[in-house]
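User: I'm curious whether this sequence folds into something compact or stays loose and floppy. Could you predict its structure so I can see for myself?
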Amino acid sequence: MNGSTVPMLAELREPGIAVLRLNRPARANAMDLDAIALLHERILTLSADRALRAVILTGAGPAFCAGLDLKSVLDEEGGLRLDGAGGYELQERFVAIVRELRRCDKVVIAAVNGPAVGFGFALTLAADIRLASPSASFHVGAVRIGLSAGECGISYHLPRLVGASRAFEVMLTGRPIDATEADRIGLVSRLVSGDELEAAALACARDVLRNSDFAIRQTKRLMWSNLDAPSLEAAIELENRTQVLGLQTGDSALAARAFAGRKESARGKG
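Assistant: Here's the prediction. I'll summarize afterward.
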């Protein structure tokens, strides 16, 4: 297969950083059954790579991901080819990808280069960091075709990122969130011009990788865990345990010595 026919491209851009690109630009990177299976396979492979520390998720062409490719599940008369059991199995295939992104101990950066619809929106929400171009937009989609707006973890992630009141309004109306609003409400970390989006995502990944592997993995785990913490005390208890473990690592001791050395050097110059 050449690059134009492979629906998913994974590339090691530099040591420790991979780019995973949805590659069906003629279909706005919408996912058919083969693409769903391949995306899951690629994410599992990247997750298992111990040398890898950050994954950038983006789309080819002007869209990020238009969700499910409806043509792939319709028959010649335009009817749905899936019965109830088949529909549930399809949902589980999508959900397995979202679960795997959340379980992945790499930092996942979504570089949202265009519309993210349905499952595409869910992918961005499951990432740890979201950067967006001015052409990005976020759509729940399903509520406008007679389905629930809650799918693939959207009803879980969205209110935690933008607040319950705003999430209710977006999910019940089905209106899109454009890039400017996404930046204003904190759905994305920042906006970057389209030409510079991937470079900005790489720079962000490099900033993350300046920290130790233990610090990155444990901070990610801690953040996601404490979004569901039942109390402040439970959150603090997990923080305390993680910090004590960190103090036992060689990285922590090395960083402390380097910091102390910089302070001594600064005093000497004064």
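Summary: The CA atoms of residues 65 and 239 lie 36 Å apart. The chain has ten helices and nine strands.
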